[in-house]
Each structure stands twice: as C-alpha cells, then as structure tokens.
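Students often ask why we bother encoding 3D structure as a string. The short answer is that it lets us treat folding as translation between two languages. Here is a chain of 180 residues written in the first language.
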Amino acid sequence: MPDDTELLAQIRRGDQAAFATLLGRHARYLYGVAHSLTGGDPADAEDLVQETLMGALTGQFRGESSVRTWLVRILVNRAAMLRRSRSRKPSGAELDENRAAAHASAGTSPAASVEAKLDLTTMLAALSPDHRQVIVLRELEGLSYERIAEALHLPRGTVESRLHRAREELRKRFKGYLQP
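And here it is in the second language, the structure alphabet:
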C-alpha cells in the first residue's frame, strides 16, 4: 500500500484510484476539523473539505511535514478565507441565550449528547478565530504542539501562548457552566 506522498505523485499523474485512497484516509478527519472550525455548519464543513482537496490537487507538497498536516494547513487557510468573506459573528447576547437554553435542557437523556455538542459549538463560536483554531487542533483533534505549529505556520511558543489564552478565555466566559 503506497504512503500518502506516493499517492500524491500518482494523483498528479491522473490516477483516480490514488485520489480515492487519499480521500478515504483523510476526508473524515478533515471534515471533523472543518466542522469544528466552521462552528458546526455541516454544509460549510463539506465545502471546506472539498476546497482543501482541490487545493491539494493544485498545490505543491514539499515534504516539510506529513501529508495530513499539509492538508490541515490548507483547510485552516480555506477556513480563514471563508471567515473573511463572510465576516459574520454571532452577538454576545445570542451566545448567552444559546448557552442558557442548552444548559437548561442538558441531562441524562439521549438528547444530552446533542445538547453537549451544541454547547461545544457555542463555546467555540465565542472564541476568536486564532484561539478556535488552536483549541480545535489540540483539544478535539489531539495534535501535538509541533504539528499545530506546522499546520498554522507558527512558532511553537505562539501555539502554546494562544492555547493558554484560549483556555483562559473559555474559563472566564463559561465560569460556572458545569455547576448546577
């Protein structure tokens, strides 16, 4: 079975089976990252994954990182472009209303899982794009500081400070969230 770098070379030669293999390896993971970065919008997440894959087809992989890290870098860049093109952010009142409604209805029922996802989406939406990126990549996707730094083209120290600030922001904004 060819590795990702070999698959990219085969794809550039027009091998559709290689593209399908690469897609099978990374599409689900990329969708999860995209879903988190877009605030939980499935249509936007699907669009971002498609744009990422198109970017991979037209881009040049230099081998400075893993193919997955390179794909995440493309995805993060596409998400930033989408965010800039829309420049829309929910107001603080909407966030507080959504959080209160989700918190009030959370419990042990099957709907609790859905509510927890809504809470997470609300919390991520409250963060700045830079903070949301590092939280998603570290806490939800489990990337190492080094991988995050590669994906975002940032020094490791910047990643660490953004994570610290993002966590502090979440603690302040949602203080008392888990308390009855």
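Translate back mentally: The radius of gyration is 18 Å. Keep this in mind for the problem set.
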